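User: For my dataset I need records formatted as: sequence, then structure tokens, nothing else. Please produce one.
Assistant:
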Amino acid sequence: MPLFVVSEIRKVKISAAVPESDLHNLKPNQKTRVRIAALDSAFPGRIVEIGSAADPASRTFTVKIEVDNPGLRIRPGMTAEADIALEDSSLILSVPAEAVLHDLDHSTYVYVVDAAKGRAFRRDIAPGPGSAETKSRSSRACARTI
């Protein structure tokens, strides 16, 4: 065991495990937010590396996030949670989950009101990754400082 370790921690790299279903939405330099519970703080970061191979047990990919470390409060080995915005949520039309209906053939639809005609009509929809099933358009990853 070494007597001491020299570490440069003005900028730290956070290693995050991201599900394979979200990997195609990630890009280098993409903005992130890293929350470290032990510090009761969140820090902005950016993706600097996206792993090329999945962990065989968890089917997650390692994504490295670089975070500035003001006050040198973040230490190697701390656990963190990373939020990575997957797309601009202002472009997503959302409705309450209770408004989304399903047929016996598994088609998905909602009722839309036509105020001019004073009636509602059925509109088939294709829920996307931001649908009620997935709840949000961010990937939340377990992370650890390295």
